[in-house]
């Protein structure tokens, strides 16, 4: 009877959590509207969407030339909203409200994923932790890829786990479509099938059957991505599979603690266009890496591993204060969610077959951003995963504490 009551109350509680979270986001959007800006990438994305509507050309920063510096999905998303609602005040607000709904969709997938991996109690707590993680509330008001990408990432993880229970070529073809869509949002996820394949192998999938599954996945991915590849070749006469914006972040990442001084800065020749400049920045970055490793191998290795990892996780993506919520209080909540890291490690040691996919994504993102630039904004999409394992560790710790108290 008690179990049936709990099962009945869970959807109600989950709906309440999502509803309250959306209500706070909506209040934030209506209260602050265009003050919800970082005055950097978000402005460029809005301009990119408007240019896309007017000329049909994907641009970024330099609006006189086409770009491969960003992936096209987010500007297309904004352009679709602006095409319907306009790109005045209400068009901007409409896009923010839709992002708030997308963010709530991510909460739902956090719940589903946690329930799949653990139990309903953990799933509810994970949803609560993620729903009221302040950066998850404020970021939905920014015109950045974070909200859309975070939703797609946790959806991709959950659907992958579900499809692996009863795999088929059709399901993996659909998974390939989702993989392509999320790659068109942010290229970081491009190697996802590698980890999915290892996960399948660890769980003793037949190798020949895996070849068929991943052929279907790759085929649908290629079909979706081919339009982007053809467009890039027409514009630059080169095969550009993802984006070509890695030069500047890689170069910035070569400076220890991101500190540039007249003594350590390296100058390079600006190209005829942004694409050529990116190549120059990439070449300069590689040259700096070789030089700095020769000067101080262990010190520079420490920067590219330990110190950049600390940079990635040490703070929350909450750069401006809203609703009288201080950065210090948000940082406390952030550190609570970081309990998910030891929680994930514990679960992986206990059952590596079950948790390999999620820990591999965390490690992969960490390593990738250590190669380029690592700071809190890039860790934000991973907080959905950490919410799940934080909830698990908290509940397990409370359960063990309760057992010790009752059995004294």
Molecular structure report:
This protein is mainly alpha-helical. It starts with a helix and ends with a helix.
Which keywords apply here?
mainly alpha, single chain, 72% helix, globular
Q: What is the chain-wise order of helices and strands?
A: HHHHHHHHHHHHHHHHHH
What about the largest sheet?
A: none
Tell me which oligomeric state these chains represent: single chain
What is the number of beta strands? 0
What is the secondary structure topology, with strand pairs?
Blueprint: H1 2-32, H2 41-55, H3 73-85, H4 89-117, H5 120-131, H6 134-138, H7 146-163, H8 169-183, H9 192-202, H10 207-236, H11 247-252, H12 274-295, H13 297-313, H14 327-337, H15 340-350, H16 352-371, H17 376-379, H18 383-406
Helix pairs in contact: 1-4, 1-5, 2-3, 3-4, 4-5, 4-7, 4-18, 5-18, 7-8, 8-10, 9-16, 12-13, 13-16, 15-16, 15-18
